Amino acid sequence: MIEKKFKNLEEQIEILKHKGLVIEDEDFAKEVLLRENYFFLSGYRMPFMVANSNKQFIEGTKFEELYSLFLFDRAFRNILFKNLLIIENNLKSITSYQLSKKYGYREKDYLKSKNFTSKPEKSRQVNDLIKKMKRQIRVNGAQHTATQHYVSNYGYIPLWILVKVLSFGIVSEMFTILKKEDQQEICEIYHVTIEELTTYLPILANYRNLCAHEDIVYDNKTQRDIENTVYHQLLKLEKEDGEYKYGKNDLFALIIIMKQVLKYEDFLNMTLELERVIDNLSYNLKIISIDKILDLMGFPENWKELSTIERSVDIDE
């Protein structure tokens, strides 16, 4: 096994220059590498390489252009993260409201296995999830301000408070083990099917975690394709071999999901913010085109039209 040895800033600069990257201001480059990490910055090199199998940058590629893609992804990621937190909070609020209304607000009432699906193949998952939620009550009962308040003053933690300390992943998993009629009530609020929301939630939770940990998102691919939606059809997205080229397992698929679960105004505002950072990157790119980046993101040329489509069109479809 080849051992990776530490490289100081000067050595990192020389490696990049050896690969063909133009570095005109070495002091600036050193400061960026020190603050942002050589490994993380190098993760954005692929669009600027001569070929996937070639470790050389396209002739004339400057350090500033590579850094621009890095900053673009950060700005894009922050916009997504802000709106994913809105989606997370909405899901927690809607789920806790529906279940509390039906099963009660004390944990001894709403954390009963009979309140969840009775499918035999799901019984272990139901029991495991209930244990996870009870563990969160024990751990956060005396630590989190909201849970501490309810434990101290009322002796229990209602679900609408408990969801505050549950991860997006746990709440997403909880949806998959709800009774079908409870799933349906939640889906009717979003105007999506149970199957669609079951697919969407793990994707949303995964991107939420990617954003929280500052991972690369612009060219990230989902583990599972989403089903074709009315938006694929209305945007007249390009097809290859009968399948849509964009919006299936790419970043645009996430945008389509967010279109369906965010309020119209929130999605419109998000689109305007995304448009600004894309335009800014387009201005800073010289050696490659913005179209190359948009293609890696799965964004069609008319992606902005998605924000102008009224939600009612999906309902009437």
Summary?
By secondary structure, this protein is mostly helical.
Please provide a written account of the structure.
- The protein has 317 residues and is mostly helical.
- It has 16 helices and 2 strands.
- The chain has a two-stranded antiparallel ribbon.
- A hairpin with a 2-residue loop joins strand 1 (239-240) and strand 2 (243-244).
- The model is unreliable at 313-317 (pLDDT under 50).
What descriptive keywords fit this protein?
single chain, 317 residues, mainly alpha, two-stranded antiparallel sheet, 16 helices, 60% helix, 1% strand
User: Widest sheet: strand order?
Assistant: 1-2
Approximate helicity band? 55-70%
- The run of helices and strands is HHHHHHHHHHHHEEHHHH
The overall strand count is 2
> What is the radius of gyration?
23 Å
- Major pleated sheet: 2 strands, antiparallel
For the record, give the distance between the C-alpha atoms at the N and C termini, rounded to a whole number. 57 Å
Helix count, per DSSP? Answer: 16
Overall average pLDDT: 93
Structural class given helices, strands, pairing? mainly alpha
Q: What sort of overall outline do the alpha carbons produce when their principal axes are compared?
A: globular
Low-confidence stretches: 313-317
Proportion in β-strands: under 5%
Topology:
Layout: H1 9-18, H2 26-36, H3 38-42, H4 63-103, H5 107-110, H6 123-140, H7 145-153, H8 159-162, H9 168-176, H10 180-190, H11 194-212, H12 230-234, E1 239-240, E2 243-244, H13 251-261, H14 264-284, H15 290-297, H16 312-316
Antiparallel strand pairs: 1-2
